[in-house]
Amino acid sequence: xxxxxxxxxGAWKVAYADFVTAMMALFIVLWIIAPEPNDVKVVYDDAVSxxxxxxxxxxxxxxxxEKTTPGSKDAEGKGMRSASDKKKNLEQIGDELLKMLxxxxxxxxxxxxxxxxxxxxxxxxxxxxxxxxxxxxxxKLTEWGxxxxxxxxxxxxxxxxSLLLDGHTATVTKAAVFAEYGPWELSADRAAASRxxxxxxxxxxxxxxxxxxxxxxxxxxxSAVTAPENQRLTVHMGVK
Length: 240
Hints:
Elements: H1 2-33, E1 41-43, H2 73-101, E2 112-116, E3 121-126, H3 143-159, E4 161-168, H4 183-200, E5 208-213, E6 232-239
Parallel strand pairs: 1-5, 4-5
Antiparallel strand pairs: 2-3, 3-6, 4-6
Helix pairs in contact: 2-3, 3-4
């Protein structure tokens, strides 16, 4: 009889140990899959369109408490005005940035190009031979690059904008590509270095949504893959 009681007394310990083990495994799995706060995504492929920009706030039709249907003339008119105002606002921000950079209109190879897209401002920062943005084959910024990013941070903070940073390179000969460090690594490192510099100018980490390195997979339209103008950093700026 004593042996039978002893057997039953040990069974609960085994069951409890199994329960504790299962709970520990569950917590480990949840910890692994939990996203990190302010996580910055670094992309090494070309799965995301370069035309993608930070999504703007949705256009709200009507005032709080006012009912409007998506197909009504009132909602359509307000949507058109909102879209027009947003485009005008982006144009003004682009002009403000160009004035700060003091780029002559007559300059043939402009180091900066600004275009208003559907949802964002696309700023292309070229790594020109006469006005380099980075030191050669390096992610280290030049004095000009430092000045541009400082101006960019000022404008982004002033207007409450969020950013995407895309690094690009031109195609180089195989002899110039090292197995350990090539265009993929360089383009991603340049985007990352630019992010760090923007943060040093009081931009908040959550203002920079994503940084990407595309190597030479996205040459500019109409340009050869080896063209120098493909050495660039593209910044998509959208209102948060």
